[in-house]
Design goal:
With about 100 residues, the protein is an all-alpha fold. About 65% of the residues lie in helices and about 0% in strands. Helix 2 (about 30-60) packs across helix 3 (about 70-90). It is elongated and about 55 Å long. About 5% of the residues are buried.
């Protein structure tokens, strides 16, 4: 999933606001530091997701039979390989359709 820098920052504000509102969370750092850490975490996760997407697409492209993107067969393989990559990373996830 691609997010602009502005959307990532906005999302970090929302996440920080939710954490601050929670009674179970006690902060040691100031709010700006926490928000910046959230941005860094989100950017790292998005980078990992882009790398996974590229790996999955390469895996599909390396099939003996050429499979056109957008076809049902391509979509099924994408979801299957994406789920395999997620499991390999220790994450269970049901991906949406590729971008």
């Amino acid at each position: 999933m691609r997010l602009s820098r502005e959307k990532t920052v906005r999302l970090s504000h929302i996440i920080t606001d939710v954490l601050v509102a929670g009674e179970d969370v006690e902060f040691i750092e100031d709010r700006a530091t926490i928000r910046q850490n959230v941005v860094e975490i989100l950017l790292a996760l998005l980078k990992d997701e882009e790398q996974m997407d590229a790996q999955v697409r390469q895996k599909i492209a390396s099939q003996k039979k050429e499979i056109a993107e957008g076809t049902e067969e391509w979509e099924v393989l994408y979801r299957k390989y994406y789920a395999e990559e997620m499991r390999r990373m220790g994450i269970t996830h049901q991906p949406s359709s590729p971008q």
